[in-house]
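WP5 quarterly update. Target: NADH-quinone oxidoreductase subunit K. Source organism: Pseudanabaena cinerea FACHB-1277. Length: 115 aa.
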Amino acid sequence: MPINILETFVLITILCGFLGIILKKNLFMKVMSMDVMSTGVIAYFVVIASRGGVFTPIIGDVPRDNFADPVPQAVILTAIVIGFSIQSLMLVGVIKLARNHPTLEINEIEKGDLS
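Structure tokens (predicted):
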């Protein structure tokens, strides 16, 4: 099955976030890149979970055969909450480092800790 255009954009988002984590030297930019990558992973999970169907699995008179699975939806909500709390904790750490050092550049912080 060929890859969907939406899946391609989501995978590019994940790759951009990963490259930001690897290449950026500013701690704030690393936290934001991690958030972009997390958003891409959640979006990819939603794209994969929506392949089965789009209808809500509620019992009714209308016969529907392509239901959306509610379990991935619950997992995604949990992942969003956990991701938000981790991002908040990382930003608190960045604020603490910003109070102790005049910069958020990793190279400068490492130089300051050695001397």
